[in-house]
Amino acid sequence: MESKEKIKIVVAIASFAVLSIFFTAQYRRRRDRKCTQSSCYLHTEQKPQNSFKRVLADNSYSAFKHLKFSESNSETSSNSHPYESEISDLLENAEIEFSFGTESTDLKMRDSYVWVATESQLKELADVLRKQKVFAVDTEQHSLRSFLGFTALIQISTHNEDYLVDTIALHDAMDVLRPVFANPSICKVLHGADNDVLWLQRDFHIYVVNLFDTAKACEVLSKPQKSLAYLLETYCGVATNKLLQREDWRQRPLSIEMLEYAQTDAHYLLHIANCLIAELRQHDSDIDASENSCCPDDKFSFVLEASRRSNTVCLQLYSKEIETSPGESAASSIVSRHLNGQGGISLKSCKLQFQDLVRRLCTWRDLMARVHDESLRYVLSDHAIVALADKVPTTQEEICTLISQADLNVDSLSSSSIPPSPSPVVCSHLEDFNYLFQGKMGKLDDIFLEILQKHLGPDGSCPLSVFNYAILSKTNLRLTNRLVSKQNGNKKLKQFGQRNSRELFVKKFSCKSPVYHNCRIFASDGRLLCYCDRRKLEWYLRRGLAKLVDDNPLAIMLLFEPKGRPEDEDNDFYVQSKKNICVGCGEKNHYLRYRIIPSCYRMHFPELLKSHRSHDIVLLCVDCHEVAHSAAEKYKKKIATEFGIPLFVQKVVDPREAQVESQSSTSEVNNVEAGVSPLQLRIAAMALLRHGPRMPSDRREELRQTVMKYYGGREITEEDLEKALVVGMSPHERRRLEKKKGMSFKHSKGTSLPNKEQDSNARSTGTSPIDDALKVDNEGSLNTTKGETCGKQGNGSDLDITMEVLDRSEMSEMKDIPVMDADDCGSRSQSEGTLDVFYPKSNGKASPKHNPKLSLLGHGPHGKQVVDHVLKEYGEDGIRQFCQRWRQVFVEAIHPRFLPAGWDVMHSGRREFGEFSVHNRAKKASAPANG
To answer: I want to staple 325 with a disulfide (CB 3.0 to 4.6 A). Which of 348, 420, 485, 495 is the partner?
Structure first.
């Protein structure tokens, strides 16, 4: 009996223990599940930006709204610069000078600075800055722990004091400084202001007006470097640790090293600016002393060019990068990189699955970054996405392990910038990966909505903030766009990339100010002579050659009788006002100049067919420009076939290595086979110099063989590569490359393409594209027998009535486009050495003769040969017919609907020159006889 009782007691205890374990496990499971659902790290981690009461740029998918002064004027809302008129005045004012005062900046940095952290201190700073003529500005940004980034500190220096503004504490009150930054009478000095200008707009609606950018000044002066560290060391003898720029500028208090670095960046800027302006003015003085034959209005001004480039930066407008579908751009980039043999993906059969998982992970990462206000890199790295999509882990432990291993392979320059791996975002929301890796959850839209509601819905696990609250309000709109994106697949990704490229192109290359000012010039009898820009109008007024007769719009009356009148040309094109719109589609928001007759031909035309002629220069939007350019390139090929003149130089060979027997045609053919295209030669040499040791061996050998063909097959050295890099360049291109790279090419002697057998009749009579544009980008011209010409000064010289002369500063926007400078070479002696250039002819023989001042890398040699052939066979009438053919090509390609009145395919383009003009043929013919 006792044993039975004992058994019952044991069974009861065991049952109780089992039940206890069961219920405990259930409780713990429920508790863990509850913690997982509400365990977002943001509940316990307080980020500095959480103290912001409002933000101008949140993490939603809506566009950024810029400051606007009038609610009734819809055109000044989100896409217009609120201070565009003030900045445009600075750009157009030819008399602008930098007024930095006479105060000298103390090179010894003060031990003290003013830390501005309260609104009262900020207002006191604004009062101080209002009394300044100039002050220096720098900013420190933080981007790792923020989706869009934010300004963490602003450094401001005057001649007397340094200020460090705590923009985290004063984020909501920074508009106090807006009037000071927008005051056009106060110059703001920054270095490399392209980003600072945008960041100030993004965070505080602060717009910089009247800027002097020391980096732009370095560009104008062709400094070997333009970094602030270089300027500090050169002009101030100060060395800085630029690694501090990557520190966490959110932390308070800042370390002593960080405070000293921040103060240094702004303190010396005023002194550096003064030094650079002195150099700019010295260059202008040198030009004034050396170029006595040039019109003062047309010469290049270093000071004005630095001003123009600096204030052009102010016209930039901040915009958020809004994708058609969250993460699509990053996904496309990852897929393209790692499915082309670079990512080590294991099975080709998994490509579709890999792509789908990458897109899901990128969508999730984009959403999590916006919700938690973190950078994409902080949430999940690209390497981690590749690893997860390739391996497809099934457990949370595998997910964390894969991410950690993938991130170990990522190098970082600063330990402080290495985010934790896995990130708190991943650790807080590991259950999300169940949605991402489930095969049945195939639609990205379902994932998008599910995750968004899970984290920001009524029972969401993540806290709402000023950064993420607007995301939900835009969900329906984004889903609509996402559905379209899903249906179009990769085509939509390509369209998105193309749209982004187009926007960047428009932003960088479109005209920054109106091209046509439509000022008027009247003859003494009151008849309209032409339209011109304001700058040309002022040229006559300053010389007392005209009087102002109207100021709205501006108009002048000449005080002398011009040689010619518009009716003399039987064409009213030059007496018509012109609109600043695309002549093809009427686009008003942006436009670029387009030369209907390609410059490679036009630069070699006789002066009387191109000087002061703007009939064939029109305005096109980017889309019409692309169509017109494509049609022109096709027609160039047709011209090349018709005349038997190739578009590019076919072969070049080093004469010191090639064994050329001039009497043997077989030898010539062999040399053509042994040579190499100058463009291919330059590309190969540049690639080997830059990336040779890091290239795959087979690609490196392929490029070496290309260069060796130029040197006759012998082994090459680094010195040979430096020489090959400049083969085919014009002197102007070589100088630009040297300035850009800070190189002298000491080994390149003998490779500048000189030709000892130059024939004076074979020389180009054209001008450089920049000087050519200065002469041709106008709206009309007439000559007089009295006054001065912009080409020459002297007694009895001609006076050209022109319209819309293109400013050199505007042409400088095209500085990154390779150009051929045929005029530049006239004042320089020939270099030593020779280069054999082979142009295949119809008779099978090669001609090595070449004008050494023309670039071999473009269509310049082709254009000169075509123009010379037309002039020889058909004369100037042939050139006019040649121009008419190109106008017809343009009309058929664009079908322009907004061409100026008087524009005609049959336009003659001919003009006559006054008795004393430098282009007068009789004067040119008599010059040798008199000599």
So the answer is: 485
DSSP 574: G
Our measurement of the distance from residue 325's CA atom to the centroid of its chain's CA atoms, rounded to an integer in Å, reads 25
Residue 877: both structure tokens together: 């009438």
Per mean pLDDT, which range of 297-311, 542-556, 884-898 is the poorest?
297-311
| pLDDT number for residue 506 | 77
State the DSSP code for 211. Answer: E
Nearest 10 degrees: CA dihedral of 646, 652, 655, 656? Answer: 180
pLDDT surpassing 70 at residue 864 = yes
pTM of the model: 0.52
CB atoms within 10 A of CB 775: 23
Q: From 411, 451, 445, 409, select the one nearest 429 (Cα to Cα).
A: 451
Tell me the helices (H) and strands (E) count for the chain, helix number first: 32, 15
Q: Coil, strand or helix: which one is 94?
A: coil
> 234 pLDDT exceeds 60?
yes
Inter-residue contact 152 to 249 (CB < 8 Å) = yes
CB atoms inside a 10 Å sphere around CB 140: 21
Question: What are φ and ψ of residue 224, in 5° steps?
Answer: -65, -30
The Cα diameter of the chain in Å comes to: 148
Alpha-carbon distance 124 to 44, whole Å? Answer: 37
Alpha carbons 526 and 550: distance in angstroms, whole number? 12
Q: Compute the distance between CA of residue 682 and CA of residue 677 in angstroms, rounded to an integer.
A: 9
SS3 of residue 617 by DSSP: strand
Rounded CA gap, 695 and 54, in Å?
A: 50
The DSSP symbol for 608 reads: G
Do the beta carbons of residue 833 and residue 750 sit within 8 Å? yes
Residue 172 DSSP label: G
- Residue 129 CB burial class (10 angstroms; 0-12, 13-18, ≥19): buried
Cβ-count burial of 265 within 10 angstroms (0-12 exposed, 13-18 middle, 19+ buried)? Answer: buried
Give alpha helix (H) positions in 806-859.
808-811
Exposure string (b/e) for 170-192, b if CB count within 10 Å is 16 or more?
Answer: bbeebebbbebbbbbebbbbbbb
Q: What are the phi and psi torsion angles at 221 (to 5°)?
A: -85, 0
| CA of residue 149 relative to chain centroid, distance | 21
Q: What percent of the chain has pLDDT over 70?
A: 67
Q: Are 260 and 225 in contact (CB under 8 A)?
A: no
Could you tell me where the beta strands, DSSP code E, fall in 856-913?
A: none
- Residues 77 and 196: beta-carbon distance below 8 Å: no
DSSP string, 755-811: -TT--GGGS-----HHHHHHHHSSS----BSSS--SS--STT------S-PPPHHHH
Q: Are 713 and 733 in contact (CB under 8 A)?
A: no
Element (H, E) at 116: strand 114-116
Give the whole-angstrom CA distance, residue 142 versus residue 52: 15
Cross-strand bridge partners of residue 138: 155
3-state secondary structure of 837: strand
Question: What whole-number distance in Å separates Cα of residue 396 and Cα of residue 405?
Answer: 14
Q: Which residues contact 287 (CB under 8 A, 6 or more apart)?
A: 299, 300, 302
Distance CA 777, CA 772 (A): 8
Tell me, what's the pLDDT at 816?
Answer: 34
pLDDT in tens, 161-197: 999 999 999 999 999 999 999 999 999 999 999 999 9
Burial, 631: exposed, middle or buried (Cβ in 10 Å; 0-12, 13-18, 19+)? middle
Residue found under tokens 């008419």? 884
Q: How far apart are CA 711 and CA 655, in angstroms?
A: 8
Residues 6+ away with beta carbon under 8 Å from 85: none
How many C-beta atoms lie closer than 10 Å to residue 817's C-beta?
9
Q: Give the CA distances from residue 702 to residues 578, 692, 723, in Å, rounded to whole numbers and listed in that order.
A: 53, 11, 19
How far apart, in Å, do the first and last CA atoms of the chain sit?
Answer: 146
CA dist 677 and 728 (Å) reads 9
